[in-house]
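Model the whole thing, not chain by chain.
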Amino acid sequence: MSQDLSQSPTAMSPEPLRPMPKRRGFFRQLIHDRPQAAVGLAIVGALALIAIFAPLLTKYDPYVSTRELRQPPSAQHWLGTDDGGFDMVTLLMYGTRTSMIIGLAASFVSMFLGGAAGITAGYFGGRIDGAIMRTADFFLVIPEVPLMVILAAIFGQSLIIIILVIGVLLWAGTARVIRAQVKSVRERVYVKRTRSLGAGNNRIIFRHILPQVGPLLVANTVLVVAVAIFDETFISFLGLGDPSKVSLGKLIENAFQAGSASRGEWWMLVPPGVVVTLLILGCTLFGQALEDALNPRLKVSYLSVRSFTIRRGISENKGEA
Amino acid sequence: MSDGSRLLDVRDLNVWFDLGNDRTLHAVQNVSFTMDAGRRFGLVGESGCGKTTSILAVMGLLPPSATVSGQIILNGEDIMAEGEKTIRSHRWNDIAMIFQGAMNALNPVKRVGHQIVEPMELHGYAEGEAAEKRSRELLDLVGIPPDRADRFPHELSGGMRQRAAIAMSLACEPKILLADEPTTALDVMVQAQILRLLVSLSDDLGLALVLVTHDLPAVSEVCQDAAVMYAGEIVETGTMDELFHDPKHPYTRLLFAATPDLFGDEQVLSIAGSPPRLDEPLVGCPFCPRCDSDFARCVHERPVLRELSFGHLAACHLNDIAEQT
Amino acid sequence: MKRSRGEYIAKRLFFAFVTVFVIITLNFFLFRLVPGSPLNRLAGPRASVEDRNRLRQEFGLDDSVFKQYTAYLNQVAHGNLGLSYRNSEPVVSVVWDKLKISIPMVLLGEAFAIIFGIITGVIAAARRRTWFDRGSTTAALIFYSFPTQWFGMMMILFFAPPFPSGGRTDFFASYTGVAYLLDVLKHMVLPSLTLGLVLYGEYTLIVRSAMLESLGEDYVLTARAKGLPRRRIIWRHAFRNALLPVVTLVALSLAYVVAGSVLVETVFSWPGIGYDFYQAVFADDWPVMQAILLILTLFVVFGNLIADLMLFKLDPRVTE
């Protein structure tokens, strides 16, 4: 996943929304204008529910083998079992749980770091801005995944470490987006007015800038969740995930180690990938739609496939000569 | 009066925009005007009155959400008959256009000279050396040093870019030039230069010019006659003298009175209120709510554009009363 | 207002150097965090006594931290990055060999992604809101969301019978000349295709977005007013402008290409640098891991530099 999420790739809606009229109205409008937001939200929501209620939804324990190895799907095991005899459906549910936790937590870390960096850079400008942005550029240029891998290899394989490692390396994209927004918000008249009234920096930042920038931060963070989930699969694939937890990345890695692809054991391979795809897809759809709505940049296109229509016949109200 | 030698004859032009949800906006209503060689015609009105849409329609540059009816007769041929198909071949050869904010009308990654040459070559008008030579001549004609042909648009000032756009529009020797707010966003001195340029081009080359603007002093300086548009329709047409000194429609009168008089002590009048919505059917005179001379008839009967004296038309019930008395 | 190309390049080169320098320094400090003795981090348990002594000398392991740092920098500058744990070969030569194997496959995949991405993106934008647009955007999103390693395995699942499921050449045959090349190509198809398909989605979306922005600009309306043919307007006017953000973003996505190549090579056992990284991680082969990080960073930095140069050439407005 490319880290620079400041472009809006899924610009599919005809008109930009007015920025944030009312909370409730905003969501309804968003879903009306951009149905893909609803689709994305629905997908992620459904998977989240499954993840949360996993223990209630399955009778198997993901850490206890049923001793029926590599079984294809059957009535008892809807998606069969893996090479260790664990029920695939159960593994999927618990794996989704872990992956989503990692994704959310890591993106929170990145949201705080990126948000703070972006606001600071955008608000204070000058040298501070330069320094922060150079650092961000640096983080964007370094291939973060090999670095993540090395860090994970050094610092150990606990869940927390993984979360921190992912989060710390993903802040740069968010920082850039937020910085741009802060710069434009800062110019607005009322902020200047507040300043002239003697308000301190903190007050301005928290009272005025943060609320304006908040929604965009959230939108961007949703997109970061998608990247974080992908990064988790990468780290797990290289055997560096938390060995005590089941995650979707681990399931994919397991399928690889067990040679499921060559053995045609699709039930071990296909489902975890599908779930990861759905998660990433859902987050991307929703996050992008949200970002587009908050950051309207769309114009009409002057070139299109269809042409204007000609109406023949007599028009009304002919003027008298 | 239909004269076969008219250069351009626009008849009953109507444009509707589809707004979705089964709503349409009737942006241009029964607009008609004619052009002859060397004539300069103004199309004035507030923003949103339909003047830009009208000339875009003449060029066939409306978006797919638009529906058009009417005739656009160029040299005896109705180029609107088949829409895009028939209009396309006339673009730039016969009719050219300069847009509002020419700063952006030029492609930032291509050299100025190339942008003038391109239509020449594609329309088979000239090519290679000859085309380049002509492009330099055109730049000279509009007052730009010919060596600027090798520059990029961002290297030129705003005024120069507008001139370059004019030079570009003349590339294939069109007979008609449609100018949409050519002086907006330019400073006053440059505005005057551009307007003088347009007048001289019209005089020297016999170019027919349609000047679309809300800048009344500009129109009075450049054009011989003009049409005033309100809410999508023409409410008065006449010579500049008639419009200024003998307006037959309250809107025209108020509009011209609202022009700031730099040298006199007249108050600047502005017309209170705003134009009617064009996505709903209109009853009565569209100007009635803002009119200072309206009466009972204005509320439910729509006035019709009538010729009051030779070449002077207006759409106002007041003129009926004047006639009757 | 002539722009100075020299200044532009110099600035970019400077930043590139700084980045590489920081990574090297980072590597040095990371080294120190690895459990075990410093010598073991450089040579591994199987190295000979002579090698170990030599390394101890070269990297100044008996001196202060600062001296070790300067010694490290010195060695890196000379291309000495220690010995690989797994076979006690100099890291640099090991990695260099693998690099030569990675490049054709990655290049093929990336080229496919860029070309296919551009074409679908431009057409989608030009045919906005038609079935083509919706279809290709949806497809792009879906492919973008596929986890690379999983997609590779899916390719094996579906296409491995006709195509080889791994490796670079047929282990049992011994081809030479053209037959050898064809065999390599046959093995390259699935991994390159996997990489390409996983990458192209993002490019499509970026290109489409940039094109839509371009197509809304006044110069496109002007081009239409000039009576220019549609195809010309799309490619020579709109795309030419859209190219600018596209080049920038493709450069930024190089980091992702790198990640993708590691995964693809591992899944297909393609014996390149990515696969080597995977094996190094499993074997705790620190020198190789860090060397590969360095090399991959160099790639991304280099790619960005090329992109900056292209941007300078393509956009006459760029000055700094």
